[in-house]
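Hi! If you just cloned this repository, the fastest way to understand the data is to look at a raw example. We've pasted two of them here, unedited. The first protein comes first, obviously.
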Amino acid sequence: MSELPEPIGRLIGLQALDLSGNQLPELPEWIGQLTGIQTLQLSGIELSALPESIIRLTNLRYLSLNDNRLSELPRSIGQLSSLQTLYLHNNPDLNIPPEVLGPPIQEIGRSRGSLKPADPRAILAYYQQSRSQQSRALSEAKLLLVGQGGVGKTSLVRYLVEKKPCKKDEPATEGIRRAKWRRPIKPPGNLATQNVTLNVWDFGGQEIMHATHQFFLTKRSLYLLVLDARTNEAENNLYYWLKVIQSFGGDAPVLVVVNKTEGGVALELNESRLKKDFAPNLQGFLRVSCQTGQGIDDLRKAIDDQICQLGHVFDVLPASYFRVKETLAGWSEKRSYISYTDYEALCAESEVADESSRNQLLRLLHDLGLALNFDDPDDSYELHDTNVLDPEWVTDAVYRVITNPALQEARGVLKRNQLAALLNDDERFPLTQHEFIIELMRKFELCFEFPNSSRDRLLVPERLAKDEPDVGWEEGSPLRFQVKYNVLPPGLVCRFIVKMYTYLKPDTPTYWRDGAVLYIYGNRCLIRGSVEDRRIYIAIQGGEDTRREALAEIRDKLEEIHRTIKGLVLTELVPVPGQPGVEVVYGTLIEMIREKIDRFIPQGGKRAASPIELLRLVDTHLRQLSYGLNGTPTGVVVGWKDGFGVPRPTGVTGTFPAPGDVGMSGKRPVINSVDFAIITMKEEELTAVERRFQPMELVSGARREYLHSQVTTTNGRLHDVLIARCLEQGQSDAMQCTHDLIQDANPRWILLVGIAGAYPAEEFTLGDVLLASRVYDFAVTAALRGDTVEQNPKGGAVHRDVSRLLQLIPAATYGRRLGEWNSPAAIPMPKPALRIPENIGDKAFYGPPKWKKKVREGLLANFPGGDPPPPRYRVVPVGTGNTLVKNVKLAEAWKASARAVSHIEMELGGVYTAAQAVDKPVLSIRGISDVVGFNRSTAWTDYACQTAAAFARALIGSGLIDTRNDQPAS
């Protein structure tokens, strides 16, 4: 369309309108008549302006305007008080930096829920600020040189910046060296040449320091990967470095620079293949010599060309941002770090007043390498209060700890009180910053705390012994599995040990640099990595059923690591019993089942094998995620029913067999009028639910695809259950998901199953399950003059059928019908250990003293000592909003407006609104993974997901809900 038909303006009840991909350079003023609109998609329609009438869309929650030609926004657009999601990417004339816009919609979709859109209020506040004060172009960028030790990175920097040939005895770089390099660069278009400052970072190449590079590898930068022409591709670790850049630098451009080419030495590379494998990062190959100067001028030109293409370099920023930036540059000459309080004060003096602008500026400074900040609101690490002005201060601290001989002699065990001796510099590394250094190492998985050690003992896997101990393993293990990589990334096994530390044997743990022995669900599990074989070997001894669950736990944690290494190429292998050295690709077995192949002779094997029997050795439950040949998620789904699998690659159409009916034509359609629909958000929530509703199959609706299962209740009734997952946290996606579910399947009951954060209390605690008896929706908040925040919660009472159910459950007769939902058999992981500090001054607590005192008292009441009690359920009101609440001040504001609120989550408001419109009962089942004011172990996330899923399964199976009458059973 090139013009919007006027009759659309009379659809005042319209809730969603998608005009993306049309050619509509203008929107009519009557668009403001569509006051019922909640979702408006206007991406890629060549829009040059928005009509002022758009401000009348007071119910608008989701607005996408990316890929247009907007040069300005209506002044009053900030009055869209319901707006929760705003995409303005690829409107270059708006001059809004990427840090402000947040991740684009494509990245959010690929992130499987780990990324969230930017706050629309922050985007619009920046836009208004940038229009109200003087501004100028940034003209600054970051240039990073990476590669193995000894390839000549430091010599290359000297030749580029100072035009001096290399020194014969150039000392190796330990940590990082930095330099500034000014280049005259002509921006795109007809603009005049500008002087651009390049912040040049030269990284040391010692293998032991590779893990620290993740602190500093940023997006919006240019990378030079330097290779040594005198060594081969493997010795240069080429693929490793390209993958590291992809993982931490996103789509940042890379130039491969082959150094030391004097004398005709030439490293041969398959350049065309590398460009395809590492698109869009890899931009070119250059050959230079820091002795003769050969190729240096060509390299300078290539750098200028790439800097010119970095979109942010010429972004126009408010003058106040530059005042902060220049002051910090002066401070960095005398101070290694500053507190966040100092940063806030500087911003206030420089007229960067609001919190969103301060955070955006801090992200920009981080990407430029001018002030490093490692805070993430989703993390429990105490990193928010320190901003690093001197990156070498961080690397020096970590280097001193990791390389200290005493740490290696202690087999990687670090006691907190040893840190002063390891750092050995009270002036540079004062006692007040020791906790920050430890927390930074924890965040990047360079160390972890031993359970039940009162936080005073940590393990640094990089300093574990390389020699594998005698683990007394019988090679004829009943369950074996392998993961083969094109390159086994250094440190991957160490990261795995960090993630799985709760499964080490408490008294006599067995682990070394490349492996460990774990105890999972009563099974003994050996994990061994081999850099030479490029494989991880897994062997499990234990019960036939539980050992497969143990393997699933191991594979889940490996997949979490794999997803952080973009472009990783791996293959999962199933060894064939009785045929040593013979393995079959896991995905091939699935394909064989699709093709109805009963028997086959494996490559290298001598006897026939059954694909179904091989899969039965390693899998008992649905696995939603697998990896393709390029290492990206394929979404392969495998379910079991009567021994058959259900593979369906995401985004691929065609015929896929249903469980128990291999070869059945077409996809299974969704069941209409399904009994229960379960909505999950985080991947851990979905995984926990999946495991309790086996067998499963994939079914398709008109709007979404779902997982389908059937549950037979204790009174013999068969219930159909659909499971859906929202990729984004927050109410907008939850509302859309609920709407799609209702349209596709018309569920009689909707269960929202997942995790939440609790207010400090003695009645419930970490791991308990809370059922929502009333909904307080804090999605809309009014910030008044000064620090006042006005709350007017929406929401209301739960559905009448939910209310009846919640009245029945606590009664003894009905409670017993839930069975042993909280037993070890129902929750297949131990309750995590919990250390309650002796005083509220401990860093485990945060918030004002009164709040911290209440947090501690609540924990003491629920963890009195000895064996921790099993999880309980409670019926209590819930607060919901679009904010991940870990801030005590905000939590207090919500509590002041609705004193009955006991716990906080992010999606129920959206589900509640969509279901309420069609009179559907919604029950929120939330496991408590957090207590606001307490920094808990990340293991509580998994445990709370398990308890919520266990309760949901028990409730459906109990027969307490009679879906034939849409009310609780009598």
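Ok, and the second one:
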Amino acid sequence: MRWGETCPSLSAKAQALLFYLASTQRACSREALTGLLWSDSPEDKARLSLRVALNALRQRLPDYLIATRQTIAFNPERPHVLDTRLFAAALHSELIRCSLHELKEALALYRGDFLQDFHVKGAPLFEEWVVLERERLRLQALNTMQQLTAHYLEAGQYEPGITLARRALTIDPWREETHRQLITLLAQSGQRNEALRQYETCRRILLEELGVMPAPETQALCDQIRAGAGIIQTDSPDPTRSTAPPHNLPAVTTPFVGRETELTRLAALVAGDDCRLITLIGPGGVGKSRLALEFGWRCLNQAVPWVNDGIFFVSLANVESGEFISTALLNALGVAPIRRDPQRQLLHYLRNRQLVLILDNFEQHVASAAWLIDILHAAPQVRLIITSREALQVSEEWLFEVGGLTLPLEAESAETCDAVQLFARRAKRVNLAFSLEDELASVIQICRLVDGLPLAIELAASRVRVLSCAALAQAIRHNLDVLVTTYQDVPLRQRSLRATFEQSWRLLNVHEQQVFGRLAVFCGGFQVEAAEQVAGASAVTLATLMDKSLVRRDVAGRFALHDLLRQYAGEKLRESGAKPRAHAVHLAHFLALAQQADRHLIGPEQARYLTVLEVEHDNLRAALHWAFESEQLERAVELCAALARFWLLHNHLTEGSYWLERAWQSSAPVPASVRAKVLAGAGRLSVAMKECERATTLAHQALVIQRELGDKAGSAASLTTLGLVAAMQGNLEQAGLFYEESLALGREVNDEWGIAAALNNLGVIARKQGHYPQACAWFEESLVIRQKLGDQHGVALSLLNLGNIARHQNDDARAQSCYEQSLGLFREVGDKSGIASSLNNLGTVARVQGNFARALALHTESLVLRQTIDDRMGTASALNQIGYVALAQGAGVRAARAFLDSLRVAQELNDQYGLALNLNGLAASVELLGQPARAAQLQGLAQVFFEIAGRPLEPDVSILMEPYLTAMRLQLGETAFEAALNAGRTLSIEQVVADVESSDRSGWHLAFAHGIMPT
């Protein structure tokens, strides 16, 4: 196969397929090849056409193609000659160290443009590939000719040099370096007049076509010839000229802050041969222009190779139309535009130059972006860096998203983060008294409010002359117009954030403006489906708004507006008069979502819907807020009823109670069943918050309505709530009666979810009473039902309880297995309280097994999680278990402090059993510290609270305590031990806590040695 030769017996596209595979020498997917050659055909037809072409090639050239179901490749093992490969091989490393023979050999292979007479209709991507290959090979050939001509000139072989230079000029008549070589060869060979005529030809072509005069070195060469100088200078550089590349980069007057990661990434992209058009895309004020300028200056200072011929900055902010961009570029390059065809003039000027063009503010000219590809094709060594609020949507474009400056993750590292540094520097310029140390907390708040947007940070910092940072943060939340400056040297479009946003707004069409305004009703982001239903935003419109940097998308595929843009969009929505309608549609959408989710929260899709509701929680809050504020009370109550179970399972207890209270106190005309559901939900959350009296009142109110309605399943749930309250108050017998009634009602109506809950709760009562076989039977029956329903949260609870039974029966292996399974399920459904319980119980198993390091780690993780969700009872439990780990390690002081912390919480909650457990632990700690009499007193008080709670000490703790009780008896004697126990039974818990705290502050050993504990 020879360069330019075709195979007439094959169709054009079959030949194109062969040429492409042979030239690229790589396996290509069938999908890529159909796109390359049949992009204008339907997918099925394109695949069929590819098979037909492949069969034709196989018949004409057997075994030359390797085809699989996925890919097709040229077989390099078959005999073939590919002159493009020979050409590249002859030149090996880009003309470096090529011999005269190699240069001649390479040029002998170049007989014209690549596939110059070969065209394929309906294959624009193939044609584009041919053009790029043609330009690449042409440039290599011209560079080869230039190097070989230099060889001839140096060797005094003028005639072959003249012939070769003329050949090069027929290919590229605007290549000034070749003109200089030809002028020199003519002059050196004695053809002085011909050399001067060649100079005139060069001058005329450059002036007419490019609008420029010959370079100084070309003019100097002509002057030497006219003067009759014997030594003719070639292309050696003029030693008087500066070696720095030319540029027109505007000077920057303020230091550049941060962005080191972006600059490194940008440099890596520009250095690549396949990345020559980069669009820095982002919203107005994000710092695209400043980043591009900083990159330009660093390229100059570091003398990178791609700016050998310069780097030029072109602002298009004031260019009225795309047809004037070429003129603006020529002016920036220092070339006088010609009126006839400035675009052609620009392309000719750039052809052989190695430079970077920075085109700023391109968003106004996106419709004219296609001609940038002409620059890339005509000038293979030119790189384009574009700044735009909108993607250009051209095939060669690489998008480089520019976001806000880095924000502080924690206060300790805040002073060094980019956003805070920028604020501090700008604030200091307007107020020398500004102190970052004093204002740090408010500055962090401001930077987070504006999401690190540099323009917003600078505008905010300019206000510290008249506002404190705290006041400024408060103002930004409610008033976009606070972000404004009066600096005269700032462009009008950047003197306020509103002006910046207005510019982006004007670039939208009417439909896009309407959609953008309606998107303001979303809070915390949205999915495509929600945007379409609520705002009328199709996926195409969202993509357009993304391309215009008004909407962003995260890695999970969720869309959102920057908070400040959302504030601006909200103003536009209000001005249009469409705000009430938009919020009403938003409320309807999320009410439907919540009701759909609520139906699935007891089935196999529980985890998925809990995740959906958690992700959409901000939108649900916004919908509730608007519903109550706009007197849409019926829908507000319905939404609260639908969310009650979610709030419980995901530990949003305080927030859920707030909304549910507003709902049941409202006068909304909702069905009695909905009101009962709200009351029942509020009661269940009150139980979780240990608000027994409130829970009882609400559950009774719900139960009255449910019984009137004949709602036995609802009644069973309310009875369960009453049972939980009774159990929490230590009345296990009454709790059992409530659960049994709930179970009976559930069985009447075959409410499997209610039956499983009642069985589980009966098991809990049996366990607390020490009836482990009966408890195990209840839990296992509940587990079977929950597994059948696919109720993952319920299964996790049953497994957790079965693990407790196994632990009480000293079956550590089964206990650990149950806890680990429950932990996995709780993590899946996102129940933090359940996760913490499983971790705490796994820690207990680890302690019993003697793995104290693992036990402490698990209890600590549980403690942190409990504190995160403000679970006071759980916090006390985790602290208590940490105390037992310390006790098992013989660390008396550490154990006493943990028990004391847990005791304080139990005292606040009036948790009798918790008080008993911690007094029990404190007794062991005190004995370990050498005070057996004080320890026995604490043990006596612990017995009182065990009796009040009506629960025995759990077996593993009883085993742990046994040696300490034995030690007390042995050290004191039986009579003194019993006396100390009895004395302890009369102590006040408040006095014990006060004295123990005093002992801790004084030093444990010293305090107990001096008898500070009461006798």
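That's it. A detail worth noticing about the second one: Residues 173 and 205 are 8 Å apart (CA to CA).
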